[in-house]
Design brief:
Number of strands of chain C: 19
Strand order of the largest sheet of chain A: 1-3-2-4-17-7
Number of domains of chain C: 2
Chains: A alpha/beta (511), B mainly alpha (281), C alpha+beta (353), D mainly alpha (288)
Number of strands of chain A: 18
Distance between the termini of chain A: 39 Å
Oligomer: heterotetramer
Structural class of chain C: alpha+beta
CATH topology of the largest domain in chain A: D-Maltodextrin-Binding Protein, domain 2
CATH topology of the largest domain in chain C: Rossmann fold
Number of helices of chain A: 22
Radius of gyration of chain A: 23 Å
C-alpha cells in the first residue's frame, strides 16, 4: 500500500484558497514530473484550486507498475494539490475482480475509486456511479476515441471513466524483416517472400522459420513468437486475437461469441477451432517455457529482444522502443494477421477472401470508475478526471511499464511519438495501426456480460487442454461450449442477452 | 565401510545445504539487477556478469509511486502476528493442559473429539472461509483492521498451539501436578506455579509454529483488508504486476525471512539441548 | 487418627473394593501387595485423586471425603523420583511451606534443616536433575516430611533405585521419619521383606481389597489365607492340592505328606502350602529339576514332583542341572494348610502329634 | 474441580467456536444457494450444487492429483527430513550452523518464495536451465510441461517443508533414551539394524504425528501452485483448493464453491482419519 498523507494546516489551506481565487497566473507544476501543465477541465491548476483537506479517498488498483504506478503517482500529486488523504491498494490482476466484487456484493463501502479491466463492466455496472454531466462535457472526454467511449458505456450511459485504450496488434523486428540478406535467404529457403504476416498461417510459418537460431548474433538463441499462453493469465485474449479473423465474418451480424438470438455459444464453431489449431501449432516456435508465459514473460521476451514477433498490448512495444532498450527502433507495429478463409455461420460454409479478413480485437483495456456506495463521489470523479488530464495522459503514455495506451484522438499523432525519439517507421506504423483499428468495421470486443470471468476461465481451460495435448482442438472447444451453455443457464439467457446486446451493437457498428 | 559412510554423509549434507541456500543466493544476486540484466539471461556475479543496481532495495523503502514502503506493513505484520500468536498460545496452552489432565464429556463428545475439533480447523482450506469471514468482520466493523485480522489468525493458530501443547503436556507426568496439589496448590495454582515454568520448550515450539503460520499467511491478510491495514505478504504481491520486478521481489524475500531466521536460531538452541523431549510428539 | 470406611472406586484398571481401616498417628503402616493389588489406588483415593463411588475418609473424626487435595494435609512420595524440575533443591523443599504461607526466610530455614537431615545439606542450590536417583528421592522425602502433614504416604519409594541404594535408604528410613510422631505413615511396597522390616503394622492387599493386616511377624507366621501367604512369601510359596484322610495328609493318592507337629483339619480336600525353605536336598521325595535361578546368595530351584510343582531354596550358589532327578525332604514345620478355595480352614489337634 | 477444569478448556473452545461457527454454518447455508457473480442473495436451490459437484470431473481429478502430490511430497519430506536429522544428530563440526540453515526454508513465506522459485525455474532466463545447459542438458520444460510443472511444485514443497520434518524428528532423536542403544550395541547390531530395530520404532509416535500434520497442511497447498504454475499447464498441477479458489473467487460462483468446499472437507476428514488409524496400526501396532 502506498499511503500518501499530506498535512496541510489551516493556514496553508487558506493560502491555497487565496491563491486559487487570485486571477490566473500560469503556475509552474513541473515539480510533479510533467513537462508543463496543459489547459483542460481538470488541469493541475484547476485541481490545485480545490481543497479536500480532511477527506480521504480509497483507491484500489492493479499491482505496480502496470496502471498501479501511475495510480500511485497521480494519487500522490492529487493529495498534494488538494490536501486530501489518498490511500491506494495494489492488487495482482488475478485477484482484482474478487477484491472489488466481494465488498460490492456485501455492501461494504471499501473503495471509492476502482481501476480494473474494462470487460468487467458486465458484472460491475450495477454498482457503479454514472459519470456526471460535468465530466462528460470535460475537455478530456471530448477527445476520447469512439471505441473507448463505447467501451465505457453501458445501456447508453457512461459509467466507466476512460483512461486507457487497449487493443491487440502485431509487433515485429524490423532489423530482420527489412534485412535484404535475410529476405533473400528466406526466399531461397521457402520459396516465398519475407513479408509481415498477413494471415495466422503465415505468422506460424515465419515464426517457425526463425525459431531456434541466433539471428541477432548475440550468442544466445532466438525464437519465433512470444505469446501469452499461461492459462490463468491473459491467455484468453491471445486466443481470441488468433481466432477472430476466422470466426468474425464481416457480413454476418448478431454476435461473435454467441448467437444473440438464441444465445447458443459459437465458441466451438469451425472458425474458433481453426484459430485454436493454429495456436497449438505455434507452440513449436515459442521460447523455452513459452507455453507458460504470462504477459510479463511475453514483455520480457519480446521487449528483451529474444523473439521475432509478438502480439499483445502496447507495453512491450513501448518498452522495446524505450531509451535504454537494446532493440530501440528495431520494432514496428502492424495489424493482427488475418484469415484467407472465414467461417460464415449463416451459410455454414467457409468464405474465401482475396484480401485477408481482419478482425481487430479491442481487448480488455484498463478502465476506472467510482463506486455508487462512495461517500466521496465528487472528489472521486475529480481524481479520475485529474488522473487522465491532458498533461498526465501525455506523460503516462511515454512510460511503457505504466500500461497506459492511446485512447484519445490526440494521442494518435506521429509527431508526439517521434518526440520520444522513435524513428519514422516505428512511430508511423504504430500510429497507423492504431488509427486503422479505430476505423475498422469488423472489430471484436470483449464479452462484456455478467459472469465474464466464468466464460473466459472456462475458455482458457479448454484452450490450455488443447495446448498441452490433453484434448484435440475440437474436443476442447466442444467442452467449452458445453460449459458455456451451462453457465448461460445458470446466469439466465435473458439477462445475458440483454448485456451481450450492448457488445453486439458495438461490433455491428450500431453504437 | 565407515569411511564410505562418512563420505556419503558429507556429500548429502553438503548437497542439501546448497539446495537450501540456492534460492536465497539467487534472490540476493537478482535483487541487484535491473530489467536489462534480467532479460539477457541468467547471470550470477555483479560487476562481472552484470552492472548492479540498487533499485530493488531502494524501492522497498520508498514511499510513493516508485516503490512500496514496507516499513508500515512490516510493523502491521509484526503486531498482528505477535498478538495473535500470544493469544493463541495462552488460550491454546490452557486448553491443552485441560485436555491432557481432565476428562470432559458432553453427550458423546469426549476429550479426543475435542482435540480433534481443534486440529480439524487446520484441514479447512482458507478459501472456504474467505467470504464468511469477510461478512462476519463486516458485521463487527472489523474489516481492514488489525483487530479483525488478529481474530481470524487466532482461529488459524489456536489449533497449532493446542496440538503442540497437548503433546507436550502428555509428556509431563501427571504426578507433578498432583504433587503440587498435595503441596497446597489449587489445580489452577498447580498449573501456573509448577507446570507452566516447566513448559518453556513446548511453548517455544508452539510459539514458533504460531509465528511461522501467522507471519506467512497471505490469503486472509489479502482478502480481509482494503487500504488501512496491510501485511507484509500482501504488500509484496502489490509488486506482482503483469511485469514482475524480479529485483524488488528478491530483495523483499530476503528481508521478510530475516525475523524468522532469528527464531530459527532460538529454536535450534532448545532443540540441541534435548529439552524438547515432550515438546513435539 | 485416620479412618476409612468402605472405600470403593470405579472407572479404572484397578478398583478398590470396600476397603475399611483405621490408622493411628505415629505408626508406620506398610501396605504390601503385588502390582495391581490396589495399593497406589488406595493412596490416591485417600488424597482425593480417585473419585469414590462409596466410602468416607475421616481424619480425627472429621469427614474429609469431599475436601480438595490441597486442604487434606497429606503428602506423598512417588515411586518415580518426582520433584519440581524448575526449582532448586532448597526451593523444592520450601515449596509446600511457602504454600502454607510461611515467608521465604522461614521456609528456607526449615527446608535447609530438613535437607540436612536427609543428608543433602551440600546440594541446596542444585537442580534435581543434577542429583543421583537416590538423592532425588531424598529430596522428595524431605519435601513430603517438611510440612509435618498428618498423613505421609510413600508409594513404593525405593522401587526404582538400584539394589545398594535401596538397602541403604531402607536402613535409614526409620530414623528419617522418627520425628513425624503426629503423622500416619503409609508405605506401600511389593517386597515382603521391606514391608516386614519397616512396618509397625502390615496391611496385605489383593485385588483391590485388604485381605489381612496385623503385626508383620504374626502375619508371616500365620497367614490367614492362601492369597496372604502368597503375597507375603518371597520367593514364591508353592501350593499343592492335597487331602486329609484318616488324619493323614496326602499330596495325592499314594503320596503321604509329612505332618509331624501339624494341626490337621477334618478329612477332605485341602490346599497345602510349601514355603521354599520347607524343601531341602536329600530325602524321601523324588523330583525332576526344572529351572534354577540365583537370588542374592541363594539358589531357587523349581521342582516337578509327581503330585505337583514346588520351589526349593538352598543357601549358596549351587548349580543344578535341569532335567536331572533329585531327592529332597520336606519339613513339616514349614507347611501351611488352607481350605481348597484358599480360605482359612479349621484345624484340629493332630492325634498323632 | 469442576470450575477449574472448565477454566482451562472453555476460553479456547469458546473463542474458536465463536470465530468459526458463523463461517461454517454460513458456508453450509450458502452451499444450498445459487450465490453467483450476478446475484448475492441466499436463495434456496436445494442440493443442485451438490449434484453438480458429483458430476464435476475437474474437481475429482484435482482431488486425485492432490492425493498424489501430497503423498509423494510428504513421503519425500519425511525421508529426507529423517536422513538429515540422523546425519546432523551427532554432527559436531558445523552442526549448529547446519541445523539453523536447515530450519530456515520453513520460516519463509510460501507466496514470496514461490515467486523466487518461479524465476529460478524460468526456462530461458533462470539459472537452473542455464547451469544444466553447461552440462549439455536441456532446456528442461520446468513449468511448461505437465511432468515438469508437477516436479517443480514437488521440489518447492520439499524445499519448504522438509525442515518441518527435520525439526520434529531431530528433536525426537535428541531426546531418545540411551538404554536401547546400549542393548543393541551389546547385541552387536550394526548401524542399519540398530536404526530399524531401535531408532525407527522409538520414533514411531513422532513419525505419526509429523506425517499427519504435514498431510493436513500439504493438502491445503495453494500459495505455491498459485504463484508457480497457476494450476497449469492445462490442469496438470491444479489441486483441489486451487480449483475451489478458481471457482469461488476467480469465477465468483460462491454457492457452488461452498458446496465444493464442504464435500472436500468431509472427504479430507474421513481420509485423514483413516490414514491416521492405518499409520497407528502399521507403526505402533495398535489402535487409538
Amino acid at each position: 500500500m502506498i499511503k500518501i498523507k499530506k498535512f496541510i494546516g489551516p493556514a496553508s489551506a487558506l493560502a491555497l484558497a487565496v491563491a486559487a481565487a487570485s486571477p490566473a497566473m500560469a503556475k509552474d507544476y513541473s515539480q510533479f514530473g510533467i513537462e508543463k501543465d496543459l489547459p483542460g477541465t481538470c488541469s493541475y491548476e484547476a485541481i490545485d484550486a480545490k481543497d479536500y483537506s480532511g477527506r480521504s479517498l480509497n483507491v484500489i488498483t492493479h499491482a505496480i507498475p502496470v496502471i498501479g504506478e501511475p495510480t500511485a503517482l497521480h494519487a500522490e500529486q492529487f493529495a498534494e494539490l488538494t490536501g486530501a488523504e489518498v490511500n491506494v491498494v495494489h492488487v495482482p490482476f488475478g485477484d482484482l475482480f474478487q477484491r472489488i466484487m466481494i465488498p460490492f456484493q456485501s455492501e461494504q463501502n471499501a473503495y471509492d475509486v476502482l481501476f480494473y479491466a474494462s470487460l468487467w463492466i458486465g458484472d460491475f455496472n450495477r454498482f457503479l456511479e454514472p459519470v456526471p454531466q460535468k465530466y462528460l462535457d470535460s475537455t478530456g472526454m471530448a477527445d476520447v476515441t469512439d471505441s473507448f467511449t463505447g467501451v465505457a458505456t453501458w445501456n447508453g450511459q457512461m459509467i466507466q471513466y476512460p483512461m486507457d485504450g487497449d487493443r491487440h496488434y502485431l509487433k515485429y523486428r524490423t532489423d530482420i524483416f527489412d534485412n535484404a540478406d535475410v529476405q533473400a535467404k528466406f526466399l531461397a529457403d521457402t520459396g516465398s517472400e519475407l513479408v509481415v504476416p498477413e494471415t495466422w498461417e503465415d505468422y506460424n510459418k515465419v515464426a517457425a522459420y526463425f525459431n531456434d537460431s541466433d539471428w541477432d548474433g548475440d550468442g544466445e538463441l532466438n525464437y519465433g513468437s512470444a505469446e501469452v499462453a499461461k492459462r490463468d493469465d491473459l491467455m484468453f485474449s491471445a486466443f481470441i486475437s488468433r481466432a477472430a479473423p476466422y470466426a468474425k465474418h464481416p457480413n454476418v451480424k448478431g454476435g461473435f461469441f454467441f448467437d444473440l438470438e438464441t444465445m447458443e455459444p459459437l465458441i466451438n464453431s469451425p472458425g474458433f477451432v481453426r484459430g485454436l489449431k493454429l495456436f497449438v501449432d505455434a507452440q513449436k516456435s515459442f521460447p523455452p517455457g513459452g507455453n507458460n508465459f504470462g504477459l510479463g514473460d511475453e514483455i520480457f521476451s519480446f521487449g528483451g529482444g529474444q523473439t521475432l514477433m509478438s502480439y499483445s498490448w502496447d507495453d512491450a512495444y513501448v518498452q522495446a522502443n524505450g531509451a535504454d532498450s537494446r532493440i530501440r527502433n528495431m520494432v514496428a507495429a502492424a495489424p493482427l494477421p488475418g484469415a484467407g478463409e472465414v467461417w460464415n455461420r449463416d451459410t455454414g460454409k467457409w468464405d474465401t477472401f482475396a484480401t485477408p479478413n481482419r478482425a481487430p480485437y479491442m481487448t480488455w483495456g484498463w478502465s476506472s470508475a467510482v463506486s455508487s456506495m462512495s461517500e466521496e463521489q465528487d472528489m472521486a470523479f475529480d481524481f479520475l478526471c485529474f488522473f487522465s488530464n491532458e498533461a498526465n495522459a501525455q506523460h503516462d503514455l511515454q512510460i511503457g511499464r505504466f500500461g497506459v495506451n492511446p485512447y484519445r484522438d490526440e494521442h494518435l499523432d506521429v509527431d508526439f511519438w517521434k518526440g520520444l525519439g522513435w524513428e519514422d517507421k516505428t512511430a508511423n506504423s504504430y500510429v497507423s495501426t492504431l488509427s486503422n483499428m479505430e476505423k475498422s468495421q469488423n472489430r471484436v470486443f470483449d464479452l462484456r456480460v455478467p459472469g465474464v470471468s466464468q466464460f473466459m476461465s472456462s475458455m482458457a481451460n479448454g484452450v490450455a487442454e488443447a495446448m498441452s495435448g490433453q484434448k484435440s482442438a475440437q474436443e476442447a472447444l466442444d467442452g467449452v461450449a458445453k460449459e458455456w451453455a451451462e453457465i448461460t443457464d445458470r446466469i439466465g439467457k435473458d439477462r445475458l442477452r440483454e448485456a451481450y446486446a450492448n457488445v453486439v451493437k458495438l461490433e455491428d457498428n450500431e453504437g | 565401510m565407515n569411511k564410505v559412510y562418512h563420505t556419503l554423509k558429507t556429500i548429502f549434507l553438503l548437497g542439501w545445504s546448497i539446495f537450501v541456500v540456492f534460492p536465497f543466493l539467487w534472490a540476493l544476486t537478482t535483487s541487484f539487477k535491473d530489467a536489462n540484466a534480467i532479460t539477457s539471461g541468467a547471470t550470477y556475479i555483479p560487476w562481472v556478469d552484470f552492472e548492479p543496481s540498487s533499485q530493488g532495495w531502494t524501492s522497498l523503502f520508498t514511499t510513493g509511486s516508485q516503490g512500496i514502503n514496507i516499513i508500515g506493513p512490516f510493523i502491521d505484520s509484526a503486531v498482528v502476528t505477535l498478538i495473535a500468536s500470544l493469544v493463541s498460545l495462552i488460550l491454546g496452552t490452557l486448553a491443552a493442559y485441560g485436555l491432557s489432565r481432565f476428562e470432559y464429556r458432553l453427550g458423546f463428545v469426549k476429550n479426543s473429539d475435542i482435540t480433534f475439533f481443534f486440529i480439524s480447523q487446520r484441514i479447512m482450506p482458507p478459501i472456504v472461509l474467505a467470504i464468511p469471514f469477510f461478512l462476519m468482520l463486516k458485521e463487527l466493523g472489523a474489516l481492514d483492521t488489525i483487530f479483525g485480522l488478529v481474530l481470524v489468525y487466532i482461529a488459524l493458530l489456536l489449533p497449532i498451539a493446542v496440538w503442540v501443547m497437548t503433546d507436550f503436556f502428555s509428556g509431563i507426568p501427571k504426578e507433578l501436578d498432583e504433587m503440587a496439589m498435595t503441596d497446597g496448590c489449587s489445580p489452577i495454582g498447580a498449573f501456573f506455579r509448577v507446570i507452566l515454568p516447566n513448559s518453556v520448550p513446548g511453548l517455544v515450539v508452539a510459539g514458533m509454529f504460531c509465528l511461522i503460520f501467522g507471519w506467512n499467511d497471505f490469503f486472509f491478510a489479502f482478502t480481509l483488508t482494503f487500504t488501512e491495514t496491510q501485511l507484509l505478504p500482501v504488500s509484496i504481491v502489490s509488486l506482482n504486476s503483469s511485469v514482475t520486478p524480479w529485483w524488488s521481489l528478491s530483495a523483499f524475500a530476503l528481508i521478510s525471512v530475516a525475523p524468522l531466521a532469528c527464531v530459527a536460531v532460538i529454536v535450534e538452541r532448545y532443540m540441541s539441548r534435548g529439552t524438547m523431549s515432550g515438546a513435539i510428539r | 487418627m485416620l479412618q476409612i470406611d468402605h472405600l470403593t472406586t470405579a472407572d479404572a484398571k484397578v478398583t478398590l473394593d470396600d476397603v475399611s481401616f483405621v490408622f493411628e498417628a505415629g505408626k508406620i503402616y506398610t501396605i504390601l501387595g503385588r502390582t495391581g493389588a490396589g495399593k497406589t489406588e488406595l493412596l490416591r483415593a485417600l488424597m482425593g485423586l480417585n473419585p469414590l463411588t462409596v466410602g468416607t475418609v475421616k481424619l480425627d473424626e472429621e469427614d474429609i471425603t469431599e475436601r480438595p487435595i490441597r486442604a487434606r494435609n497429606m503428602s506423598l512420595v512417588y515411586q518415580q523420583f518426582i520433584n519440581y524440575p524448575h526449582l532448586s533443591v532448597l526451593d523444592n523443599v520450601a515449596f509446600p511451606l511457602r504454600r502454607q504461607g510461611k515467608d521465604k526466610a522461614e521456609a528456607h530455614a526449615l527446608a535447609g534443616q530438613m535437607l540436612t537431615t536427609v543428608g543433602l545439606g551440600e546440594f541446596l542450590q542444585r537442580r534435581p536433575a543434577q542429583l543421583s536417583g537416590g538423592q532425588q528421592q531424598r529430596v522428595a522425602l524431605a519435601r513430603a516430611m517438611v510440612k509435618q502433614s498428618r498423613i505421609l504416604m510413600l508409594d513404593e519409594p525405593l522401587a526404582n533405585l538400584d539394589y545398594k541404594l535401596r538397602e541403604q535408604l531402607r536402613e535409614e528410613f526409620p530414623r528419617l521419619v522418627a520425628d513425624n510422631v503426629e503423622s500416619v505413615i503409609l508405605y506401600t511396597t511389593t517386597e515382603p521383606r521391606e514391608a516386614m522390616e519397616l512396618g509397625n503394622t502390615m496391611i496385605v492387599m489383593h485385588d483391590g481389597r485388604v485381605i489381612a493386616s496385623g503385626a508383620p511377624a504374626d502375619l508371616f507366621a500365620h497367614p490367614p489365607t492362601k492369597d496372604t501367604a502368597s503375597v507375603i512369601s518371597d520367593p514364591p510359596i508353592s501350593f499343592i492340592s492335597g487331602f486329609v484322610r484318616d488324619n493323614c495328609l496326602y499330596f495325592s493318592e499314594g503320596h503321604l505328606a509329612p505332618s509331624e507337629g501339624l494341626l490337621l483339619p477334618a478329612d477332605g480336600p485341602v490346599t497345602i502350602a510349601l514355603r521354599p525353605d520347607a524343601i531341602e536336598p536329600d530325602g524321601a521325595f523324588n523330583a525332576q529339576i526344572g529351572l534354577s535361578e540365583f537370588s542374592g546368595s541363594q539358589t531357587i530351584i523349581h521342582l516337578d514332583f509327581d503330585f505337583g510343582r514346588a520351589i526349593m531354596m538352598v543357601d549358596g550358589i549351587e548349580a543344578f542341572t535341569a532335567g536331572n532327578d533329585i531327592s529332597v525332604s520336606i519339613r513339616s514345620e514349614h507347611i501351611m494348610l488352607f481350605a481348597p478355595d484358599g480360605g482359612n480352614i479349621t484345624l484340629r489337634n493332630n492325634q498323632n502329634g | 474441580m469442576l470450575s477449574s477444569k472448565h477454566f482451562f478448556l472453555l476460553p479456547a473452545l469458546l473463542t474458536l467456536v465463536a470465530i468459526i461457527l458463523f463461517p461454517l454454518l454460513f458456508t453450509v447455508r450458502v452451499s444450498f444457494s445459487s450465490w453467483d457473480v450476478f446475484q448475492s442473495g441466499l436463495d434456496f436451490i436445494g442440493g443442485s450444487n451438490y449434484v453438480r459437484v458429483f458430476e464435476d470431473q475437474r474437481f475429482w481429478q484435482s482431488l486425485q492429483r492432490l492425493s498424489l502430490l501430497s503423498i509423494i511430497s510428504v513421503s519425500l519430506q519425511y525421508t529426507l527430513g529423517f536422513a538429515l536429522a540422523l546425519a546432523v544428530w551427532k554432527q559436531v563440526r558445523g552442526g549448529r550452523l547446519m541445523r539453523v540453515l536447515f530450519l530456515i526454508p520453513m520460516m519463509t513465506t510460501p507466496v514470496v518464495m514461490s515467486v523466487i522459485w518461479r524465476t529460478v525455474f524460468h526456462e530461458s532466463l533462470g539459472p537452473v536451465n542455464d547451469i544444466l545447459s553447461a552440462f549439455g542438458v536441456g532446456p528442461v520444460p520446468w513449468l511448461s510441461s505437465a511432468t515438469g510443472a508437477f516436479i517443480s511444485v514437488l521440489i518447492v514443497e520439499v524445499w519448504q517443508w522438509t525442515p518441518f520434518m527435520f525439526l520434529l524428528l531431530l528433536a525426537g532423536l535428541v531426546s531418545l533414551p540411551k538404554e536401547p542403544y546400549l542393548a543393541a550395541a551389546i547385541d552387536g547390531a550394526g548401524t542399519w539394524r540398530t536404526f530399524w530395530q531401535v531408532t525407527f520404532p522409538l520414533m514411531a509416535p513422532i513419525t505419526i504425528g509429523a506425517l499427519i500434520i504435514r498431510l493436513i497442511e500439504a493438502s491445503k497447498i495453494m500459495d505455491t501452485v498459485y504463484v508457480l504454475t497457476s494450476g497449469g499447464p492445462g490442469t496438470a498441477t491444479e489441486t483441489s483448493s486451487y480449483y475451489i479458489y478458481i471457482r469461488g473467487l476467480r469465477d465468483f460462483q460462491i454457492g457452488y464453491s461452498a458446496a465444493l468446499s464442504l464435500v472436500y472437507l468431509v472427504i479430507m476428514i474421513i481420509s485423514l482419519t483413516i490414514i491416521a488409524k492405518l499409520l497407528l496400526r502399521m507403526l505402533v501396532g495398535k489402535d487409538e
